What does this fold into?
Amino acid sequence: MVVVADSSPLRYLSVLGQQDLLPALFGEIWIPAAVLIELSASSTPVGVRLFLENPPGWLKVRDPSEETVQTISAELDRGERAALALARELNADLVLLDDAAARSEATSLGFRITGTVGLLRLAAERGLINVPAIVGQLRQSGFYLSDSLIRAAFDEWL
It folds into this structure.
């Protein structure tokens, strides 16, 4: 399975200390260098930057061609555009992103998508996480979670 990620799911899973869910769920994860740069910015939480100082072997970095990037909506940020362009070039089976506009663009391009909450739900279904603890940590991390989204995604574990 070819999986491409934008910065948000990597950021929040790293903040939660759950970045190793990704290889457990999918094996390899592909990102463009633009996403690596976003996650290395000084405004990014220290734990995320430390994680990416020496990226694990399962995190593969490859840049899409600028020509392919130009086919993606200019309304998205550079990392989102590059991630979707990379997904297009790799013929990805799944794209990991949270931003609503990026999700809409990915869907219009025909990609199957999920975000941080979807990843955590999949991990819960496989018994890989303590859902009440993770939901609490995710709320404290600054990730927006409505009560209805929590119920819809995790009610059977809460």
